[in-house]
Amino acid sequence: xxxxxxxxxxxxxxxxxxxxxxxxxxxxxxxxxxxxxxxxxxxxxxxxxxxxxxxxxxxxxxxxxxxxxxxxxxxxxxxxxxxxxxxxxxxxxxxxxxxxxxxxxxxxxxxxxxxxxxxxxxxxxxxxxxxxxxxxxxxxxxxxxxxxxxxxxxxxxxxxxxxxxxxxxxxxxxxxxxxxxxxxxxxxxxxxxxxxxxxxxxxxxxxxxxxxxxxxxxxxxxxxxxxxxxxxxxxxxxx
Length: 239
Ligand SMILES: [Zn+2]
Ligand SMILES: [Zn+2]
Ligand SMILES: [Zn+2]
Fold this sequence. Notes:
Metallo-beta-lactamase, Chain A; 25% helix; binds zinc ion; five-stranded mixed β-sheet; alpha/beta
């Protein structure tokens, strides 16, 4: 807001970025990763009709503030939405969104919390999901592996036990703010170094700052296996 830099002034659709989120879809199942402040616009744009589960990376507002807007899916599914979250994050959300979790307001979003821990997989319908630890500066948060794909956002370092859980992935979605160093997020080179050390075939960068530059200009400077993500990008993978 209020910025006059090249990226913020760009009218190219790839430079119009909502807050980071992703949706995993199979023929039968739809799973949402994070409920940021742009959730309503994102799900309307995507045409999402059902949510079988929500998995959360961490408690920061840019990943949680849209949580109220899952209410229509309670109505369509006639059930509470399974909500997979670390206990610390759940405790935090129960304070900030007390009316949801106390069930004191009958038309609030209805979530069915499941406490998850790194390294212990869980299944939503037929999709197996492996949560793994990543460090967002000093805050321990979660990344997720689904089949040959891993989704990491807001990471700065990856502990060795998580590198083990990531062995054999082909596709990595990973955060990078920009070229410069940052205390709690990967820089672009830190993100691509991670991808190199995992020998992944394709990397998609997410959670970018305007300081990354215009999408088309920056993409030209990168090798072909590194793609800057953009809103509405779809990726096929094997769960
Ligand atoms: Zn800007
Ligand atoms: Zn964060
Ligand atoms: Zn974030």
